[in-house]
Predict the 3D structure of the following.
Amino acid sequence: MEVHILLIFMIIGAIVALEARDLLSSVIVLGVVSFALCLAFLILKAPDLAITQLVVEILCLIILIRATIKRDLPLAIEGRWIFNTISTVVFICVFLYFVMLALRELPVFGEPIMAVVREYLEKGKTETGAVNLVTAVVLNFRAYDTLGEAAVLFTSIIGIVAVLRSPGKKKD
Amino acid sequence: MSLYILCMILFCIGIYGVLRKRNLVKIIIGLAIMGYSINLFLVLLGYRFHGRAAIEAETQDILSMVDPLPQAMALTSIVISLGILALVISIAIRIYEKYGTFDITKIKRLKG
């Protein structure tokens, strides 16, 4: 029930963030949505995710505010809005069709299947020595995924440095 | 089931932001909202009613925990979404320096 309230809050916050007039307030409303997501993770018994989401969200807010501060531009609304609206509606309809197909196959909420993870749960303490099973999965059973995640992070840092570095020649 | 549907409504709002908005920062906010809804959906798939967090204790039955595997995958996904957002924002800052606007319909020149 609490998760329902938080999700409705997140939906309202997302609409406000997309429709707000100036960019700084929409960025801050995005932060509100993300902190509601933190609370939802805590209620859903995922404390590691809540901590990580909190840290990542604060970093995201800093980066987004760095991008939008002092660049507050009026939004233009007119122009090609029929084409844009039609394409948006078409994409949302296609997505909802696939959601409708997928929702029939999903397990009932509150009773997960746990076919893969049963072995991890039984062997986790003896094989890895980690009491927290999420840590055991991330750093031991699925360590190659974490290695790939680190590779993706370094690649994105290389991309940021390549995009944002000052150009070699002067314009004067 | 209603929680899944609310999650998908949040994803649809993200699609609306990406496809319909003309401001680059609004498009990036739409991407972030899509990422949030998918992470929440993964965690919802592993939730168990009256389950405990996946941390072992002495007097605990193993099968009364929530599923830790989707949580681990969502942990990876959250960190990767930070990398994506930083890269996209840096490209947006660069476009602003070059064209002086965030409006995607005014960015027309291809040659510099």
User: Anything to note?
Assistant: Helices of chain A lie at 2-19, 23-43, 47-68, 81-105, 117-128, 133-141, 143-164. The radius of gyration of chain A is 22 Å. Chain A touches chain B through 88 residues (CB under 8 Å). Residues 92 and 98 of chain A are 10 Å apart (CA to CA).
